[in-house]
């Protein structure tokens, strides 16, 4: 079996189809890098819970959910840049590509500075203990902690453009390596701090937020002075009128981004408010387990976004049809074999991984398993449609999903507990998956008209 698999890989690498070969190389390399990221993430969970407490770790997760809302303020520039950059490079327009990159850096730096100033004023008047439903026995200064997290995220907001650029030029494995090195730095720092400093939420937050910034900054300097010198940003190349071109497609991505943040980041906040921060920890442990599968599927799909964009630019529909068929076969195996098997083994995995720190019931595990199936099914079609820039239906779906999901999550969490919030997501994602699947089929068969073709 191993020799057969090796033969298939070597055959694919020798293929004349450069696009498919590039995807395979990136996927294989990404599995190595992301495998390391998954391992580091799994090690960090019990390490952090042991360093502080389940409740304080839950508070960190809720704070990071709040601050992640800032991501939608890139007004769709990141994803808009990704598609524009892929198209410019496919057409050998290197100077145009540099202008897109330079303009994106400038716009996001301005937005980041404005948001940080607004936060500094607002932070003085917000009672975070009340907002997060923090137990009275936890005495940390949460204004100070929120400042650390928000300031770090503001800088990362700009620095992480390097990841978008690498993905757009079909270097998703290298993009993953940058993120992995940040995680690895955090792991070593936490292990050192844990030996010498008593459990402290502020110290933990500093380690989790500051170290990745240094990695992003270092990677940007090294890459733009080496491999990516031909794409390096420059102030003289900033043209704010180019922001409009990026935003022509980026505006729809903005709505999708806002929708994704509301859909995927409100669970922690809702659970913390209704049940308490400790319940957030239990939910995130179950989520982290199944995120291994979701991340593996994302690794597979990430190179396809830019590849679909390039194929669409060159009208290579035959390649797109072949690729979608392959990916859908993989999804069926994941959805109906791998995820159910993982759910059956979850109890044993929790005991080996977390010990008796946190108790997670079977209902929550099954709910998160269903979530993983719905999420990967939706992502499959979403990556294809994003590459083609056909995102209007997604935009409307996310608006409807956000309108429905939050009140439904609140209602179900009150009625049946933590897994109620997850089941609300499952219902919404399943509906989105079915509609996007239909749109993808119509586009591939050439029968898409009207809204289906936008």
UniProtKB/TrEMBL annotation:
Matches recorded under InterPro entries: Poly_Biosynth_Transport, Polysacc_synth
Membrane topology field: Multi-pass membrane protein
Places the protein is found: Cell membrane
GO MF: antiporter activity; xenobiotic transmembrane transporter activity
GO CC list: plasma membrane
Any single Pfam family the record assigns to this protein: Polysacc_synt
TM region positions: 23-45, 57-75, 105-125, 145-166, 173-197, 203-225, 246-265, 285-309, 330-350, 362-384, 396-412, 418-438
Keywords noted in UniProt: Cell membrane, Membrane, Transmembrane, Transmembrane helix
Keyword Amino-acid biosynthesis among record annotations: no
Domain of life (superkingdom): Bacteria
PANTHER family: O-ANTIGEN TRANSPORTER-RELATED, PST FAMILY PREDICTED COLANIC ACID TRANSPORTER
Protein name: Polysaccharide biosynthesis protein
């Amino acid at each position: 079996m191993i020799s057969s698999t090796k033969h298939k890989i070597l055959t694919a690498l020798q293929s004349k189809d450069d696009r498919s070969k590039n995807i395979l190389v990136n996927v294989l390399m990404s599995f190595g890098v992301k495998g390391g990221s998954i391992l580091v993430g799994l090690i960090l969970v019990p390490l952090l819970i042991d360093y502080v407490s389940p409740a304080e770790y839950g508070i960190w997760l809720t704070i990071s959910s709040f601050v992640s809302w800032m991501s939608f303020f890139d007004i769709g520039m990141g994803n808009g840049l990704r598609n524009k950059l892929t198209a410019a490079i496919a057409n050998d327009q290197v100077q145009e590509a540099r202008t897109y990159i330079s303009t994106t850096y400038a716009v996001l730096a301005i937005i980041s500075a404005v948001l940080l100033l607004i936060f500094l004023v607002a932070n003085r008047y917000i009672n975070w203990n009340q907002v997060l439903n923090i137990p009275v026995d936890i005495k940390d200064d949460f204004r100070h902690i929120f400042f650390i997290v928000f300031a770090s995220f503001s800088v990362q907001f700009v620095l992480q453009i390097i990841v978008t650029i690498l993905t757009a030029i079909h270097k998703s494995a290298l993009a993953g390596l940058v993120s992995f090195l940040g995680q690895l730095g955090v792991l070593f720092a936490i292990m050192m701090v844990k030996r010498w400093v008593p459990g402290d939420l502020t110290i933990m937050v500093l380690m989790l937020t500051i170290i990745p910034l240094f990695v992003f900054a270092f990677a940007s300097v090294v890459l733009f002075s080496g491999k990516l010198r031909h794409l390096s940003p420059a102030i003289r190349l900033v043209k704010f009128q180019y922001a409009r071109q990026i935003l022509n497609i980026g505006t729809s991505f903005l709505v999708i981004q806002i929708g994704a943040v509301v859909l995927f980041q409100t669970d922690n906040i809702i659970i913390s408010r209704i049940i308490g921060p400790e319940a957030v920890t239990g939910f995130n442990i179950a989520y982290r387990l199944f995120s291994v599968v979701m991340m593996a599927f994302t690794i597979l799909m990430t190179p396809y976004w830019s590849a679909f964009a390039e194929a669409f630019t060159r009208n290579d529909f035959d390649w797109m049809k072949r690729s979608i068929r392959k990916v859908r076969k993989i999804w069926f195996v994941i959805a109906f074999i791998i995820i159910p098997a993982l759910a059956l083994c979850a109890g044993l995995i929790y005991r080996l991984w977390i010990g008796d720190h946190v108790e997670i019931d079977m209902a929550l595990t099954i709910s998160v398993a269903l979530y993983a199936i719905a999420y990967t099914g939706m992502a499959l079609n979403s990556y294809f449609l994003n590459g083609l820039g056909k995102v209007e239906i997604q935009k409307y779906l996310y608006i409807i999903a956000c309108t429905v999901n939050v009140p439904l999550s609140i209602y179900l969490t009150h009625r049946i507990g933590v897994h109620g919030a997850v089941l609300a997501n499952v219902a919404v994602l399943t509906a989105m998956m079915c509609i996007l699947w239909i749109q993808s089929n119509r586009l591939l068969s050439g029968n898409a008209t009207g809204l289906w073709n936008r």
